[in-house]
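Now read these lines:
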Amino acid sequence: MKTTPLLALAAIAGTELRLAHGFSGALVPQRHRLRAAPLALQSSNDNDDDNDETNAAPSSPRVKFRGIDASTTGGGSSGGDSFVGGNPLDRFLAVVASDSFSIASGAIGLLAVVVHRWNLVLAASDGSTAASIAAAEALTYQTRTDLLGVFAAGSVLLNGVTKLDVTTALAESVVLEGKALPSPESVGGASGERPGPEVAWGLESVLGATPARSAVLLGSDKDGGWVVLHRAGVVPPVPAPVPGKTPILDRVGSPGNTRETYLPTLQALPGRTELNYLPPNAQMAVMLPIAAGGEAQSENESESESGSGNSVLVLGGNAAKSFTPRDIAWSRIVAERIGESL
């Protein structure tokens, strides 16, 4: 069996150390201690490296750039907590990937292209010297280069703008004036009955799933006007009759209309007076058309119904511009369900 020099050296050093400890007062020769010391140091370093690799917690991703561990800092400490700390490469990459750097570099690039192009135009405008002639020729063959520079700088600028976290200021909510109904109620109309289960479910659903705080279902009467059929949420204490002139309501409730109308700020709306069936301080409103009788209604039944227009579901809120496209889409689906039950 062949023995490597390293194992032989270890055996000799171990034997001499045991002999030295076995005899009291015996001294180990200097040459043996010098020969055993490197082996002990090497073994200690190897054990320390193994312990470091074993105890290293993979709590954060480790990225290496050209042999440099991005999770270690320049001061010798390691760990995920110092990932952004002391390594200059980490700080440089963080700055380059930031949105402010993209915006600044894109703006500087666009400015450099514009200044360079403008200098060529000024130099070529003289036309008397050889330099102006060369500048005029440069305007021709550098056009594509300038366009590429504009596109590149513009892309970097747009990349930084798209990464900006812009939070819009939300309008303040108010306490609606009126009474809060515990459950949907019927006000008038052809039947005068309590709202059916599907109508009550629809009114309660839009109040619970959207920013709406008031829901009113209107229908057309025999004279071509509008009357409040059902309402829910916060409503005026005494139901007032709908005004005779209601251009907004007439446009939404016309038979051929299938699109809703969103009024984000009622306080600045001139036609605010026709929405007297909502609380006086309502901040926004959404009007959704409902087909009279739904798709299952026959022609004879539709002729016997009072009025020929659509019904309209009006939603009121306590904060301006509080409805999102998702809220409007959800309200439209509920309005279609209510129309099937009418």
